[in-house]
Specification:
6-stranded mixed β-sheet, alpha+beta, 20% strand, 303 residues
Length: 303
């Protein structure tokens, strides 16, 4: 009677063995990824927004760059991780959040790119930032107490160095990017942090990255929904929420005919109600429980 091969595992070198090894590597990679990679820095919410859905924006990084300005950008030409330029005898570094390749820990990627941009020579670029055991924590590179002073653009013309005539292929790349961009704005007002408006064409949206734990925020949203307060007022509708890098992002559909600044005051008012709901302790009522279950059914996960 021949020896049973049951449970002997896939043959070494077989396609099945390769697939299993790839799945195990992917699982180990996911396990190594922090749930909230940007936790520990005050700018966490805006970093998540710039990483996931803001088209074109920059912010001078709050780092000690020894005289060199380092700019954090949503995306750089070619979706590279970093580049260094010299302009008017000043050397400036740029790091991108939306990149072609990244490790499981995007905060470590950013820290590594910031360190590279502090030291690289003008004209150099970094295709991918691969952190190693010597990469410091992001909170050791960025000022952990500083919010970002963000400049929002409606095009990608800032990709082009001032005073230089771009090569035809570079100019064409910028033009293509400009044609595809969706108008966006970061709402300003008391208590508004990482509240982003975007014009998606048929609708406009408010995407508000919140710092609270998902459970606490969901309870507060449920209380507001049950009270009829889950709204920014006329011309708005709560659309749902999505998770991104450990944070929950409530989304509202908005009247696209209204200017983004017209939503600042309604957002401030809603933010005050939300903050008040976050302080409420005690179990949810039956109506609030139904609201919570309904809201959870309208969640998706980006990362």
């Amino acid at each position: 009677m021949g020896k049973s091969k049951r449970n002997s595992g896939p043959k070494q070198g077989s396609n099945r063995a390769a697939l299993i090894a790839a799945r195990e590597a992917e699982r180990a990679s996911l396990e190594a990824a922090p749930v909230r990679p940007f936790q520990g820095v005050a700018a966490e919410c805006d970093l998540v927004a710039m990483r996931e859905f803001v088209p074109s924006a920059t912010a001078v990084a709050p780092v000690d760059a020894s005289g060199r300005t380092i700019t954090i950008a949503t995306v750089l030409p070619g979706a590279v991780a970093a580049l260094v330029r010299e302009s008017d005898s000043a050397v400036n570094g740029f790091v991108g959040l939306q990149v072609q390749a990244h490790s499981p820990n995007i905060a470590a990627d950013l820290a590594s790119a910031l360190e590279w941009a502090r030291q690289a020579a003008p004209g150099e670029s970094l295709d991918a930032s691969i952190p190693d055991g010597n990469t410091p924590a992001l909170s050791e590179v960025l000022d952990p107490s500083a919010q970002l002073d963000i400049t929002v653009y409606q095009d990608f013309n800032w990709w082009l160095p001032e005073g230089l005539e771009p090569a035809p292929d570079v100019a064409a790349t910028v033009e293509r990017a400009n044609q595809a961009i969706m108008p966006s704005a970061r709402l300003e007002g008391d208590g508004l942090v990482a509240a982003w408006w975007v014009d998606a064409g048929a609708k406009a949206h408010l995407r508000w990255v919140r710092p609270e734990s998902e459970d606490d925020l969901m309870l507060a949203l449920a209380r507001l929904h049950a009270a009829g307060d889950l709204t920014l007022g006329e011309g708005s509708r709560y659309a749902g929420s999505f998770r991104a890098h450990g944070l929950l992002v409530p989304v509202f559909d908005l009247d696209p005919e209204m200017h983004p600044t017209e939503w600042s005051l309604p957002a401030v008012t809603f933010g005050e109600k939300l903050n008040e709901a976050l302080t409420v302790d005690g179990p949810l009522t039956s109506e609030q429980l139904r609201s919570r279950d309904g809201l959870r059914g309208r969640q998706v996960t980006l990362r």
